Amino acid sequence: MNNQRKLTTAEELKDLRLELLRAKSPEYAGEIRRKAVKRMLQNFAFALVMVFLAGILAQIIYVKRTGAAPSVFDFYIYRIETPSMDPTLPVGSIIISHRPSGLKAIKIGTVVTFITAGGERVTHRIVDVVKDDTGRMCYRTKGDNPINSVDLKMLYYSNIEAVLLFKIPML
Fold first, then answer.
1. Of 5, 160, 161, 162, which is least packed with CB atoms within 10 Å of its CB?
2. Residue 72: phi, psi to the nearest 5?
């Protein structure tokens, strides 16, 4: 067996001296600070992402328990489950909608998601704006599918949950 210890060479000593000089320089201290700030910002960004994901998880749990529509900052996510809006919104499409900003946001041609008297969520297009017998503004709706007829029940603003922003086509 070889019991000889390896000694530090002159070149290794020179490299060590240079490293020590570099560590004492102000540039090195600035580099260390920049790395610390970068690490702190990365940790902060990670914490924000975790809080956001926890919020989404809480939203999902809430939606499952109450049957409410999933929303983030008054933006709603719906999945089209029937062919009533075909071909505009085929079954399986995901739509992103937002809470309407007022009566003026609802006009003919607007696609809305509303709650029926039976508690169902329906996404249909506004085809007419009228006033009922009491003078209240109300809407007639219809699905885009050509086989659909105009919905029998009038829709009131209070039943409108959201207005379509855009759709994410099914894959």
1. 5
2. -135, 115
Cα gap 36→30, rounded to integer Å: 10
φ, ψ for residue 38 (rounded to 5)?
-60, -45
Angle between helical axes of 26-66 and 10-24 (0-180°, round to 10): 70
Q: What is the pLDDT of residues 117-154, one digit of tens each?
A: 888 999 999 999 999 889 899 999 999 999 999 999 99
Question: Residues 89, 91, 92, CA angle at the centre, nearest 5°?
Answer: 100
